[in-house]
Recover the amino acids of this structure.
């Protein structure tokens, strides 16, 4: 059987493919190569159990044709749907970005799962479905759900479509809501932003917002471990989990200092005003991971350790040293 | 200023238009006439303050052209988005129905509101966003939200898109989650189904499910009153309300008996098995209307009274007597 990954050339997709291949699985993946890149597939492309096609999943006809061909060679048993727009600000200026890349990719995947009889969906959702609930602890069952970005809205729309599909043709679903994931190959995110800014102006780092925004970060190694752990250990029809570390996270100020200390020691950090970096950004949240720890999973790295490791990895990626 | 109504030729849309015209507003409306009908507009079509166009809102270019023309004549101040697929089982067999008619109509409306600077959205959402939460009392803030029909999923997706739009260009939104609304002009629903079955076989009424499904019903007169009340009295940026009566509702058995007694006295009622009528149907729920009553609104008719009035009205519509 084949495990099929959408967005396989993205940050999470390529790491997931690598881990599944390591575990002896047969893996096929599609990507529109819009934010993902062939370079991200360097470590898996030549593996005999891996196949890749450059397909835009928002184009149902192209997606159908390509997936049917994969399915005909060796049946697809499950779809890991990782494809999405990953650039939240881009989705604010143009809602079509998240409509196409975050929602339509899910909707089309479900249509094809129905057509081909593929019963298992594992979906990369997001903490963004919760919107801004103030100081509430974000358990998986909290409401109301009013996302404040198109990205969050289209992730919630995707969850809803998956949930409805479970009522008719889908067998099982795994919904992973993860917050900020860091590591390499980095394609976006605060660490890479800071490093690139310092590359351009090594003496100063301008930070959006006042630096007090606090978030939990998970290293990609831990994330992949958690996803596969949940896939194997959770046995409800619909399994939905917050995936994150157990701590309250770190501030933007901490990240800025870690980056400066690694790539431009002595540079000045200039903070902006307010505690939101951009429209759709949530200043601070407390993410409950009780459900995931009750299932028996623990991250190896805390938010602080994850940031330190990722700063080092992304600095190497960006500077080659 | 013009108040613009989508789905204006549908059950709720035409009644809303009538009430707004009565209150002295200028009203424009579009409808794809797929489930709505020109006949439903008989009482408003000749009103000097009313204009209508047959437009498929899922076709963004056609929608844009027509709305720009309305807006150019007399600016649109708010959109009442009532257009949606209203046939839940149809959306189960073909997810595209709710994708197009329930979600894409919302998404396109938001795009045009951004383009034209229309700041206020009033949206007909649904109790279906709650999915099946068992015996929990459904307050507006409950979670998790996992709809069990594509209809519910695309209503939740619409709410999410509206919520995200509020974070950037939208000024105010009103989200009305209503359960089963009854009255005339009836286009679908349990009362009309029963009456049509009895028209075909007057001696017997076959009921899907065991008749114990219990739901709250609101008469359309009360519904329109509640929507306009909320529009005037609620002043948050995002105002989201369950709209329903204050009672626990009535069973399918009660409705079947009311219909038989009105249109075919003496007919036998045969019940099926199980307490779900179809995939996506929620057997029983308790709908909290505390938020709406705290705002000061009360329905004039209970579920029992609403059913009795609507049975009479729909019998007249179907039999002409």
């Amino acid at each position: 059987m084949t495990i099929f990954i959408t967005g396989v050339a993205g940050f999470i997709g390529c790491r997931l493919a690598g881990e599944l291949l390591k575990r002896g699985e047969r893996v096929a993946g599609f990507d529109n190569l819009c934010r993902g890149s062939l370079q991200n597939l360097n470590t898996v492309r030549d593996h005999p159990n891996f196949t890749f096609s450059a397909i835009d999943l928002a184009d149902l006809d192209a997606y159908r044709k390509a997936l049917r061909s994969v399915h005909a060679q060796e049946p697809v048993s499950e779809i890991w749907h990782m494809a999405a727009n990953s650039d939240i600000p881009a989705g604010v200026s143009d809602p079509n970005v998240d409509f196409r890349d975050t929602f339509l990719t899910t909707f089309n995947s479900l249509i094809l799962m129905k057509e081909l009889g593929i019963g298992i969906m594992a979906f990369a959702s997001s903490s963004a479905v919760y919107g801004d609930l103030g100081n509430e602890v974000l358990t998986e069952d909290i409401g109301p759900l009013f996302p404040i970005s198109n990205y969050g809205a289209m992730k919630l729309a995707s969850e809803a479509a998956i949930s409805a599909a479970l009522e008719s043709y889908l067998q099982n679903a795994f919904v992973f809501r993860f917050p900020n994931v860091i590591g390499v190959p980095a394609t976006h995110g605060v660490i890479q932003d800071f490093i690139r800014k310092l590359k351009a102006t090594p003496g100063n780092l301008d930070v959006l917002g006042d630096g007090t925004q606090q978030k939990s970060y998970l290293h990609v190694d831990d994330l992949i471990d958690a996803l596969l752990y949940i896939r194997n250990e959770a046995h409800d029809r619909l399994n939905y989990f917050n995936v994150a570390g157990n701590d309250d996270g770190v501030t933007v100020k901490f990240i800025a200092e870690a980056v400066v200390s690694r790539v431009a020691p002595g540079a000045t950090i200039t903070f902006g005003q307010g505690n939101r970096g951009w429209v759709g950004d949530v200043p601070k949240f407390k993410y409950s991971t009780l459900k995931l720890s009750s299932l028996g999973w623990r991250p190896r790295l805390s938010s602080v350790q994850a940031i330190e490791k990722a700063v080092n990895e992304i600095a190497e990626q960006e500077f080659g040293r």
